[in-house]
Amino acid sequence: MSGLLAGKRILVTGVLLESSIAFHTARLAQEEGAEILLTGFGRVSLVERIAKRLPKPVPVIELDVQNQEHLDTLAARVSEHFGEGIGLDGVVHSVAFAPQDALGGNFLNTGWDSVATAVEVSAYSLKSLTMSLLPLLERRGGSVVGMDFDAQVAWPKYDWMGVAKAALEATSRYLARDLGHKNIRVNLISAGPIKSMAAKSIPGFEELADVWDTRAPIGWDLADPDPAARGVVALLSDWFPKTTGEIVHVDGGVHMMGA
């Protein structure tokens, strides 16, 4: 078997629709030789239907990152599919959520409960997910890759999700620091906006996306998740053996443009 991920076993979270970066990551990972396992939250049957559109059949297990029982049993459930004693080579964290009152220009009025939910689901879950799978990842080292949206600046209407993404970026660095001695790498892909299920939940998404029409020097296609998915697959591979705590921007270059 050949390919960047030949022989690797990868867990991918966050597949909701065929338009998602997570779906295309799973597809590309399969094409590059990996064995894939998906997680689903709530609508597991929907994820199972979407999974049938991948090149090869993929099992789906339920995972709510706010459910401690799900986290406590995750490693065992993953091993049921990949086999006992085999381990896990990679994890894709593509999980984010903020209540509606934490988005859309309501930043100054959002209550702590909504902020706490945004931070727990979108940032803290990178730590809780990784630690749940640590017994499998540490067997031969591995790569954890999270999905980010540039938190260096304040975006229109993004509000507390922007704060949660800043927390995600910091969390990835501390995880990289503390897991490096186990040969586990932790990196993020900061992708440009994609017209996905997540995007539809953001009030004023079109206003935010318009930035890419004028500021991406290499161009950006809102309907193409493939470039970001390729970035994820590259970081999952052995081609970045000493890269950790990094944020790789796959956004057409917008992150580095001035006025």
Concise overview:
The chain has helices at residues 21-31, 44-51, 68-82, 112-132, 134-137, 159-179, 197-200, 205-215, 226-236, and strands at residues 9-12, 35-40, 60-62, 90-93, 142-148, 184-191, 247-250.
In words, what does this structure look like?
It is a single chain. 41% of the residues lie in helices and 14% in strands. It has one domain (9-252): NAD(P)-binding Rossmann-like Domain (Rossmann fold, 3-Layer(aba) Sandwich). Strands 3-2-1-4-5-6-7 form a 7-stranded parallel sheet, sandwiched between helices. β5, α6 (159-179) and β6 (184-191) form a beta-alpha-beta unit. The radius of gyration is 17 Å and the shape is globular. The chain contains 9 helices and 7 strands, in the order βαβαβαβααβαβαααβ. With 259 residues, it is of the alpha/beta class.
Q: Which structural class do the helices and strands define?
A: alpha/beta
Give the C-alpha Rg: 17 Å
Number of helices: 9
Query: How many distinct beta strands?
Result: 7
CATH superfamily: NAD(P)-binding Rossmann-like Domain
> What would CATH call the class?
Alpha Beta
Biggest sheet overview: 7 strands, parallel
CATH topology: Rossmann fold
Low-pLDDT parts are none
Strand residues, percent: 5-15%
Average pLDDT over all residues: 94
One letter per element, helices H and strands E, the order comes to EHEHEHEHHEHEHHHE
- Give the tally of structural domains: 1
For the largest beta sheet, what order do the strands appear in spatially? 3-2-1-4-5-6-7
Residue share in helix: 40-55%
CATH architecture: 3-Layer(aba) Sandwich
The first-to-last residue Cα distance is 48 Å
Assign an overall shape. Answer: globular
